[in-house]
Write a structure and sequence with these properties.
alpha+beta; 2 helices; 10% helix; single chain; 22% strand; five-stranded antiparallel β-sheet
């Protein structure tokens, strides 16, 4: 079955998913309700947040999402390493927007 990128507004907020940003960057991430903050501002957190910082992560939010197919998700971002072979999820040139 062909997986398509779906609008971020339809993403589940109770699990990790693939997040796609403008420009094509894809990383794993999840919804952060920001409950611990004095003035909560929920946002999509991702595996590169430690590298880019929370301010940048809040300001640059994804536009699309896709479910993570386990166990094929072993390549998700490890600490500061960006995803470089996300094309394994989809054939080249077949990104749906």
């Amino acid at each position: 079955m062909k997986r398509a990128w779906q609008p971020i507004e339809t993403a589940p907020k109770d699990q990790r998913v693939l997040l796609r940003y403008s420009g094509g960057r894809v990383v794993c991430g999840s919804w952060d309700n920001d409950r611990q903050a004095k003035n909560p501002r929920p946002f999509w957190a991702n595996d590169l947040m430690n590298a880019y910082g929370i301010k940048h992560t809040r300001n640059v939010q994804p536009t699309y999402w896709q479910p993570i197919e386990w166990p094929d998700a072993g390549w998700c971002v490890d600490e500061l390493r960006e995803v470089t072979h996300w094309e394994t999820l989809r054939p080249a040139g077949s990104i749906d927007t």
